[in-house]
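Why ABC transporter permease? Reviewers of the renewal asked for a concrete example.
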Amino acid sequence: MLTVALCTLRTRWVTFTGSFVALALGVALLAVTGRALAASLDAPERAPERFAAAPVVVRGQDTLRVPTPSGDRTAEQARVRPVPTPVVARLERLGTVVEDRSFPVRVRGGRGPGAPVGHPWSTAAFAPYRIDAGRAPRAADEVVVTGGWAAPGERVRTDRGTLRVVGTVPGLGFEDAVFFTDARAAELAPLSVQLAVDAEASAVREAVREAVRDGVPGGAGVRVLTGADRRYADADPHRDEEALTALNALFGTAGGVSAFVSVFVVSSTFAFAVAQRRREFGLLRTAGATPGQLRRTVLAEAAVVGVLASGTGCVLGAYGAPPLTHWVVGEGLAPAWFTLGDHTWPYHLAFWTGLLVALCGAAAASWRAGRTGPVEALREAAADAGATTRGRWLSGLALLLTALVTLVLALADDPGDLLHRKTYVTRPMLLITAAALLAPVVVRPLTRLLTRLPARLPGATGLLVRENAATGVRRTAALAAPVLVTVALTGSLLGAVATLDGAKAAETRARTTAAYVAAAPSDAGFDPATLDRLRAVPGARISPSAAGEVYVLEDGVALVRSQARAVAAPGALVATARLPVAKGRVADFDDRSIIVNEEWREHTVGRSVRVWLGDGTERVLRIAAVLETGTGDNGVYVTAANAAGAPVDRVDVALADGADPDAVAAGLRAAVAPSGGRVSSGHAWADAASPGSEGATRAGLLLVLGIALLYTGISVVNTVLMAAPARIREQAVLRLAGATDGQVLRVVAAESLTVVAVGTLLGLAVAGLDLAGMWAALALLSVPAPPVLPWAAAGTVAGVCAVLAATASVVPAALALRRRGGRPGG
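Here is what the prediction returned.
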């Protein structure tokens, strides 16, 4: 059988080209994915940046630790506590102590970097920064900047006043710094949460332990950082870990889609090849071949293709990994330092996975080949009878039923789970597979429906297209299936993101009733003077609020963090916001209570809950009201008394009775101008604040869809080329009947376009069903947002498939017509 398989591959190489290319690309992607995963698992620890030259860094409490019967539960605090003063006093006895301060600096006039950070000059030596021009700052209005965007002697306007640049230092790549004098930095940022100590680490640790033994409040949470641990004193020390996690998710999704579509393409190719070779298998059965021998022949063909394609894919992966690595780094999907390692196990995994995919894809076709009877050798009919086997019926219906049942169960149990990225990326796969298996059932009626009007027009083109497509069900289904997959993936993935973005935008608009919103220019928030000016604006009723966090221990084992909005005046909240209250009353909200959402385990109005604020402070608060779950953005509300010192970053403004809106707006803008704040209408702020899909998420989805489209192109072209030799006689008959070359080519092109249209409609139907599940979940979560189908993207995909299918069908037909066999008498 191996000899027969090799002879078949040699004579029917066009039939297996699509499977070979699809497998090679899939193995290449798996090799790249494996290398990226291996590199991320062996990623080096990020070295300290701002304190690379500091002997020891002492940091205030930054970890919340809650004891439970089963052990301590920890979480990173949103706000770091200052190092207690008694601890600082003990450290000053050991050596020089330099307090660190960080605060945003906003440069006006469109100059400078996007987000510079202010520091005291004494901390510059710990990076270390070295002056390359000018001198160190000595006066309150003097600064040293990184990056050379301003030269010594220049004056720059900032939200911290007009500053004179007296020196520059080379940038180190991790921040854009503005260094003030230590005294001025202490005025701008009185709070210091960490400090550098010029002393032995052992002595520093002993001093901290003594403070804990002496009962110094907050001393137990103080951390002594040395060596690589000094990176925890940098801004966002976990950004590399988060980026690598996102990168692994991206490549995992890409690898999963690649494997899914590879199996689909290979199985489709072998199924169509077996259908075309019925007479050949019938002759082998007449010659005495057993069903088992036929099955082994098909599997041997798949094994040969799998070995060759997997080997080629590993080579392609070795050459394709570096460019893809540069792309993910350039798109911000991976840290700038990310590089591929020299691991070899990803190639072994990719090779054997490719071979397994080839065998799995050909398994069903091999069983169909084994059922071929000797009578098939005499078959001449072109019509496909029984294109949908019992196994295909059962598999398709089972997958469809599974998809629907799991959707109903998810809607009944936790509708919010359907809104998670992991769910809406994987859930469409069941529907797509079911639709592809059941495609032959609906291809014939759908084809007749699409060609009903063209078939009635003058001329025979429409009638021929209808009969050819409806008669060759296997050929039509094999060509429509890859189009179905790609259109369905495009509609489901991009549609899910667009639907979810629209739902969140609708929520944000519904919650905002403020006439105007004043937003702070940075995380530092508005200073007290700005708030006083806002309160003094005639006709304005302001509601200042701050972004905060609240932690709650659920079921005694899980420490859950929730985003919170801290409002200064609970009464003003009612005038500027329309909260989606499910139970309770906002009017009962005060300093001893909290507003939670239905996602909380405890959400009974009137019950008391133990919570921890952003700085780890413990509180027991009464539940005043419960908000609907929504898309997950309906957070928690506390008062400013429970905000742990979070700065006011937003001021919602309602108009008093009889107030002139234009005059109020002008007064608000004048009040926030000195601080660099921005005032906008409530509607404009809601539109700007509506969360959209992140650039990394969109880039990842486009990568996945690009892979799917590439596979679809391979499958479409391969299917058309496989069918071309068998249709030469059919085209010759049309020429004998009087059709011109142009008419024959128009029939061929129109048939291909019709089949692509069938696949597009089926794909849109699958995407619509998938998005209907998300719409139902949103409705159950009280978010009335309609599903969004990405017509432009789906149309683009369908157009590419149409061009490929028409080109791949017309070119072989034109070449055949130019040969003698394609003309009358040939």
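The longest strand covers residues 540-554. This is the kind of structural detail the renewal will allow us to pursue systematically.
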